[in-house]
Amino acid sequence: MGGNISRDPPDAHLQHHQHHRHNSTSSPSSMTRKSKSPTLRNSKSNSVNEEKKVPAVKPDKRIIYGRAYHAIESSSYMLPRDDKEIDRLHEEHFVTKELLGFNIMIEALKTLDFQNEGLKVLDVCCGPATWLCETSLEYPNCRFTGIDMCSLWPQVIRPVNLTFTEANVLQGIPYPDKSFDFVQLRFAVLAFRSNEWPFIISEIKRVLKDGGCFQCVELDMRIITTDPIARTYTEAFESFCASYGLDASAGAKLDLLLTEGGGMKILQSEYREVPLGWGGPIGDAYIQIFQGTLDGLSPWLKQSLEVDGFVSDFESGADDDIVDYKPNNRAKTKSKKTTKTTKSKKTPPTIPTESVTTTTKNTLIHHQWDEKRTAVLAGKYPDTYWKFNADVPQSHMIKSINEKSPLTSIPCTITDQGPITSMTLSDDGTLLVTYSSTGAVKVYDIQDNFHLIRKLRDTDEKHIDEFYCGAFAPDGLLAVGGKLKDRYRWSDDDADNHILPCDIKIFDVCENKLVARLKGHKEEILSIKKVIFMGQNYFVSTSQDGSIYKWHMAEDWKTLIKSTKMEDDITCMAFTVSFLPNTGNKYFIAATDEHLRLFDFEQAKLLQTFSSINSSYCDCAKFVNWLDEKAYQTTDNNSKYAWLISRGAEMCDLSEGVSSKPNTCTLHKLIYPTKTQQGFKLEQIKTYQHDEYHANSWLVKITSNGRYLLAPTIYGQIFVFNMLSGQVTAILKEHQDMEIRDVIFHPYRPLIFSCGDDGCVKVYTYKSNVEQHQNNQILAKN
């Protein structure tokens, strides 16, 4: 759902359009305003409660399958006009208000003085007038008018400053030019055919005063899903709308209609992504609202689609959609396998995790490493990694996870209205940041009961922001990245707004403002990392366009000195990076495509490729300090080495739609060369797998405290593997049955954080800590 404010040239009109979809995709809404005029406002002579009637015969009702519908032949509106529909519209108003956080956008309140000026407000297609009743009581000095072709509004009891007009707006709005200071239109996507929208907009512009505001809340009725059953019904619904000349995606295109057709300039925009059947009370309410819409349309759905149980069948399909939701994965045009990875509830064959056989991965050497240079850097710039792990006595981080040390979730409210893709902890461990597709970054105080202290948003961004990742820098700076979508351009290939070049945006968290941009990536930014190399400041970022950039920053971490793209013309998608221990940050491993690639950070060159780690995508790789390596009998102890964990997604069996092999996490041993002409060796030491571990989705991260590996699944679980034994010691389940995207250990507190597509962050600690806290509270009360 979204909204924006736009400014018109003199003598033009202001329009505001908001739009929300029943899925993870988002689209814009706009609000525009024209320049103020010193002319006096006209007033009408209607009495306060006078109900204006146009000279037309009031249409009769039609009773179809026991429900009342209008009988106006010129209107394509097919929803009922009975008490059941009024209840649905009431609920839609309150849920939408909760989602947006307002009845009137802030820029309209700044532009127009609703408290004192006695403004005239018109609500077009007002329905049962829920919005009008609320706002007319909130602003008693204004005069409110509702217009609709059916009189569903309160007939006896209503605010004294509220009147109604019964009329079909397709025959024109029955008021003179420049009559209203503020006009609203919302939830009209099923009311007007595609060729009727221009006339409706022109009528609204005609009755809007100079300096007035037009607010429009609109829906994109499409549901984007990868589930084949749910997709069948959503495609059928779109075809049904098209057969009646309706555009189910009209809400996504209104900005184009308003700006290109009306020459308006966007001044402010807001949008919201709406979960459908998931994500908490909002998602639960919206699935009921949407099902109520289908129920109201059922006479025409049954006739058009020749089905009897569309609504009930859709409900079962919606349940499948909840399980199968993923971030939108656009088709790539590069020479990369495009077979889609999907998840499956079928049990794959088991791989014994006790195996001690090591496998050396196929490798391709592109450039040679610099042994002498590496030794100098490692000596001068020692690693600062792994200050805290499960064996550090003074640290209180989670050290054991098993039957003797069970974990439980802490009651807290860390949520968003869209999927939360990842999280970041501040260097001192006091702040938690979440990144989601709602266009805002949220900052929580871990020390103050996880209180929300900042909501960062680029208020000057005219297009649609989605944030996926970020990294803290000194002095309260936060670099964030994600996806930027064109508010005015639609991509049929993506079934979403067109992708734009994606900048890294640097925010000052204390000042709550954007202070810098880093331009370079063409598509979604998937990870950002802060790096110190030779005493200099850098960010390194990866992208869905396949590029990896290093950004040399000045001492203030805001001023860019130089950006350099890694020399690599073969990668299609780059996910995460992790720097090799004991190399002075000269080298890093990147999870790219289905491979692991080794880069020289200093020279910005691809050094080596370890091929086919996964059959589809290898989306996460991290170096870890394996605490129990001495208990594992290894060979070639004279060589330098590092331990690396990875995970990914597998190709699917197209005949059954299941992954071609089981999902696993892997422990690798990266053996450093002893001579310049040699390459690194990557040995597969252990695989971590379980019959119930299903994780065939990409853009997912794993983590470790040096003893346990935490592996999220697509069903809201976190599998806890003992890295030495390979056994599952616990399964944490607090999320809904959806993908968990990220999981992290707190470095010195007994906390674990996880986030996922249900829009929630779950916080875990030892069960004994929670019980002790509860006992202390009881004692304090006594």
UniProtKB/TrEMBL annotation:
Cited Gene3D superfamilies: Vaccinia Virus protein VP39 (3.40.50.150), YVTN repeat-like/Quinoprotein amine dehydrogenase (2.130.10.10)
Keywords: Repeat, WD repeat
Start-end of Basic residues biased regions: 329-346
Annotated ranges, domain Methyltransferase: 121-212
Chain positions covered by the region annotation Disordered: 1-55, 325-355
Signal peptide positions (record): none
Classification via SUPFAM superfamilies: S-adenosyl-L-methionine-dependent methyltransferases, WD40 repeat-like
SMART domains reported for this sequence: WD40
Keyword Repeat recorded: yes
The protein's name: Methyltransferase domain-containing protein
Species the sequence originates in: Mucor plumbeus
